[in-house]
Amino acid sequence: MRLLVLLYPPSWRERYGDELEAVLEDRPPGPFEVSDLLLGALDAHLHLSGLGHRSQHRKGIPMSLRLAGSAAALGGGLWALFFTMVGAEYADVGPDTGFAWIVVVLVAGVALLTGLAGLSAIQFRAHSRSIWIAVLLPAAGIGIVLVGLMTLIPAGGAASEGTLPALVLYTGLCLTLIGSAVFAGVTVSTRAMSRIAGAAIVVGVLPTLAGLLAFLTAVWVVVGGVVFGLGWVGLGIDAIRRDRSPVSADPAIA
User: Fold this and answer.
1) What backbone phi and psi angles, to 5 degrees, belong to 132?
2) Alpha carbons within 13 A on the beta-carbon side of 157
3) Structurally, how many domains does the chain consist of?
4) What pLDDT is stored for residue 59 in this prediction?
5) Burial of 179: CB neighbours in 10 Å, binned 0-12, 13-18, 19+
């Protein structure tokens, strides 16, 4: 929590630091609030000349269910597209995707993390530990995937099975899938959002993980991955439909 405050410029901390530290000590932040504070720190560095006027309104960028749901739906759609591309390559049909799948995975990962951070505010207070796991695992997974993708650029985007880049990618994907399953499981149990969409994510994760770990054939990876992506699309659409007002972080933080 102290580190979050130190990310802000000295002039900002001198004026608002004590207040923010008191709020964080009284109410530890969840993934949504941490994301909001990180964006606020970036904004403070970029708008030092208008610091006072800007900070009277907000120390970050407003996040709504509509924005979080849109990001989740976009990420889910791109994950479904990625696994469809995997299926096409497995069946040896369609053109060579080259670098296209790398772009799809990167955008899908960022969108999914954005959606997770925004939607986590709905359930964090009742399930803080599970929600942190649900966000941190995909965050680590996407970071690992990024490392793996960087090693593929010299090879023209090709990942041979059994090679180190492929193993790195599989590890990142597995962490992303597990974290998503945790979040979906909490969603199903609390009924905070669509239970059908949450169940679809869990159902899609199981065969995809089993396929990546070589317990099932590659066909199950494709089928499970598409169901996983569509589950996130459904969850995102449900969040958009429920949008009424900005997701509430603590007023003193927001």
Assistant:
1) -60, -40
2) 13
3) 2
4) 42
5) buried
User: Are residues 128 and 10 part of one domain?
Assistant: no
C-alpha 43/C-alpha 54 separation (Å) is: 9
Candidates 173, 186, 179; CA nearest to 147 is 173
**Which residue, of 13, 29, 57, is where some domain finishes?**
57
Closest CA to 159 of 214, 216, 101, 112: 101
Three-state DSSP at 238 gives helix
Stated pTM of the model: 0.75
Q: Please name the helix (run of DSSP H) or strand (run of DSSP E) that holds residue 184, with its range, or none.
A: helix 164-190
Q: How confident is the model at residue 54 (pLDDT cuts 50, 70, 90)?
A: very low
How far is Cα 29 from Cα 38, in angstroms, rounded to an integer? 12
Decide: residue 187, CB within 10 A, 0-12 exposed, 13-18 middle, 19+ buried.
buried
Same domain, 220 and 152: yes
Least confident of 29-43, 111-125, 131-145, 152-166: 152-166
Q: How many CB atoms lie within 10 A of CB 100?
A: 14
Above 80 in pLDDT, residue 61? no
Least confident of 47-61, 99-113, 122-136: 47-61
- Enter the tokens of residue 227: 């169901």
**Could you tell me the pLDDT band of residue 18, with boundaries at 50, 70 and 90?**
confident
Query: How far is 43 from 195, CA to CA, in rounded Å?
Result: 36
- Structure token digits, residue 209: 């993980």
